[in-house]
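Hi Y.,

Following your request, here is the sequence exactly as I used it, all 136 residues.
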Amino acid sequence: MDLSPTDVHVESARIQRQIEDYLALGPGNLLFEFRQLDGLTRLDLITVNPRHHQSFLFRYETGYDKLEVLRRMLAYVQRYRDEESSYTIQWRTRGDRELQTSYFRAHNVYEALDKLYYGRDLSTITVFSVVLNPSS
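Below is the corresponding structure, written out as tokens. Let me know if you'd prefer a different format.
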């Protein structure tokens, strides 16, 4: 059954709220960025740290349309803690004196660093350490 544009909008908003609720991030700390890429829809889910206002990639999903990628993202946020390792990255932006600490879930250290550097020139951040956290 095809949904009307209004139904798609309502369902999209509902799933986005579920994702926000599940991740328990404050208002404005989670951004949903949709774009068309090679005939598919890509959703980049971006987190914004309220302390230093830097944004990082949480996860991206691709699919045939907006609802499919949102449903895939919801399924991911409901299980990612069981499937990915936790990493702590200490870093500093160019020109800043304060060392920052951020936490990422990823399959490996390279994926964690990709999330840190998302949308940035590699020369704008200096990474001081990447630590795989013990699993609980």
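The CA atoms of residues 56 and 116 lie 6 Å apart.

Thanks again,
Q.
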